[in-house]
Amino acid sequence: MSGAQAKAAVISGCVGVIAEVSKEALEKRHEQGWVVDVCFNLDDVIARIRHARQHKITTSIGYHGNIVHLWERLVYELDSTGDLLVDLGTDQTSCHNPFLGGYYPVQLTYEESREMMHSDPVRFKNLVQESLCRQIAAINRLTEKDKGMYFFDYGNAFLLESSRAGADVLKEGSSNSLGPQFRYPSYVQHIMGDIFSLGFGPFRWVCTSAEASDLECSDDIAASVLEDIINKGVTEKVKLQYDDNIRWIKEAGRHNMVVGSQARILYSDQTGRIAIALAFNDAVRTGKLKGPVVISRDHHDVSGTDSPFRETSNIYDGSTFCADMSVQNAIGDSFRGATWVALHNGGGVGWGEVTNGGFGLVLDGTNDADERAKCVLSWDVCNGVARRCWSGNANAKETIQQAMNSDPKLKVTLPNEVNDPDLLDRVLNDL
User: How far apart are CA 198 and CA 400, in angstroms?
Assistant: First the structure.
C-alpha cells in the first residue's frame, strides 16, 4: 500500500480507510506513521468510521483484509441501516498486472493467492475476474443515487480490467475507435487532465545536506514564493491551485513524511517552479540553506509522460497513443541545462503502456544554475501545455498564451478550432 492516501485524508480533514491484503505492508506503513490506526476485522472498521464521523475526528484507518469485503460490508450497512458511510472512493490495485500480484481476489487469502498465481494461473485468472465483478457490483450499489458515493478510477487499469472481466462498468453504447467509455470518471482523464493543462504538476526537490532544518527552510521558502505570486495577481483557477498547495506545504512538516532523503513534492506551474527554484538557489548562495538542492519532478506530470490510459488520456486529437512528448521532454531538458535526464518505460501503469522522460538539476548557488533552472523548467512545463493546447484543451490554450505574453522569445502555434463537429465525416465521405 501507499501511505500517501492516508496522509492526504488526514491533511484534508477526512476519515480515510485503506484496505491492504499484506499484513507486513500495512504494519510497516503504521510503524512509519503513514496510517493512524490499524484494524483486523470489519466490525472494528465500521465502528471506528461511525465514531469518527459522529465526533468529526480526522483520522486514517488501515484495514488488513480484502477491499472487496470492505465494499460489500459498506453495502450491507447502507441496505440495513440506510447509512452511506463513504463519500469518496477509488481503487489503487495494480490492475495493469492483475494476474501476477497486482490484484488479489477476494475468494483467496493473501498466501493462497501468492501460491495459486504460479501453480494454477488459469484458475487464478478466473478468480480475479470473478472478484472484479463482485467489487464493481458493490461500487455500483454505493453510487446509485444522486447523493451516493463519488467513485473515480485511479488510472491503474482497474476499470479496464473490470470491463474485460465482464463487470457492469461501461456506459451504454460507449465503445468507439478510441476504446471503451466507463461509467466512472478517471483520475487523470476527467480530473487531473485540466490541472495538468494549467501547467500544474508534481515539482519536487531534495536537500542534499540531509539536514531536516534545510527541508523546513525550503518549505517556508516555497510557501512564501507562492504567496508572493498570488499577491501579484493570478486567475481564479490558478489561485485555487496555489491555495491548495500552500496549505499542503505548510502542513507537510508536521505530518512526518520523510522516510529517507530530506525531500518534498509540491504541485506548481511553470511560474511557481521557476520562482521557487531561483529562491532555493539564492538561499544556497547566501548560506541560508546548508547545501545544494536538487530539483526534479514526478513522471506523473504535465509533459514528461506519454500514457494513453493515464497522463495523456485527456488528449482527444488522436495523438494520445504517440510516445514522442516524453522523448522531446528529456532531450529538450538535456541541452537546456539539466544535470541529468532519463528516458524510461513502464512507470505507474506497466511495461509497454507508458514512456517517461525525467530530469534532475542541481542548484548549487551559482548564477549558471539560475539560468539553467529558468531554461529547463520553462521547456519542461510548456512542452506538455502546448500539446494539450493543440488537442483543444481550453485551460492549456489560456496557459500557453499567458506564457508567451510573459516570455517574448516563446512562440507556440495556436490551434484553429473547428466549430462543425461533422466536418471531418463529410470530408472523408466525399473522398
Answer: 9
**Average pLDDT of the residues in 172-184:** 70
Residue 411, pLDDT > 90, answer yes
Q: Is the pLDDT of residue 414 over 90?
A: yes
Phi, psi of 233 (to 5 degrees): 105, 120
Grid cell of 331 as nine digits: 532531450
